[in-house]
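Both lines are given unchanged directly below:

***
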Amino acid sequence: MDPMVITVSAPATIANLGPGYDLMGLALDRPRDTLKVRLFKGNSDSVEVSGIGTETISTSPERNSSVVAGRAVLKAAGKKGYALDMKLKKGVPPRMGMGSSGASSAAGAYAVNILLGSPLNKEGVLWCAMEGEMAACGAAHADNVAPALLGGVTLILGFDPLRVVRFDPLKDVEAVVISPEVENGDEKTRLAREVLPASVPLPRVINQMEGFANLLIGLVKKDPKVMGRGISGDVIIEPARAKLIPGFDHLKRAALEAGAYGFSITGAGPSVFALCPMKRGAEVGKAAKSKFVKHGVVSEYAIYTCGEGGASVVP
């Protein structure tokens, strides 16, 4: 086996988890992006993309998130005179709020770090993966790339220096993602940020803190009911972005009435998700899908489990 070639994969993720805006993320068991990387002496990078949504993924090395993240690792490790040849197979659908660019970025940074003998620690690799996110969506977010890289549920505690904590995911729960067929275009993330309020009244901030506390305590105590209450307790970001999702309030009510622990928007949307008891996901998915139908929107739902693993080498 060529020591300078490696194949890795990284999972889809759900960012924010309600009130954990830009700070928390959850890895899913699937789908995953798969990335084959060859590191060689040279000065010209290249990338090929196949799989889901290839028409939306840049094949320019300067703009492709996997290449940018891998190149950031080379720079951080002080390695000069190397080039990257990447073959990315997309399994995570782009523009649906499931961390597509985060999976690609995590895979690129993780693969190159392994090829170099792992000179960077997890925070160093995460910083480089965030560079890939910057190339893909214009901002270096960590809420998708952290769980895509590390698996489980991640919490960003600070950026200067970067500090991230990983929690094991809850067992015996399902994550249902309901994805509508809506036109969200190339500027989906930008639009989802533009609708956010510039200022927030103090009482609402306190309510948001309550939701975040429930989210975190439920995660620490492995209590899905408390965690679900937290997921549903976003009173700042969710109400603003709900306007971009037809019938969101009806979807949320239907999902909770069908037995979901919690319900919110996946990342910047347009997909929504519910944390559910095992074997309840299909009922919740059907309930939410029926509300989309009443608002003239076609949708599909899929049932996942919380992913223990993040980026990993493919044998």
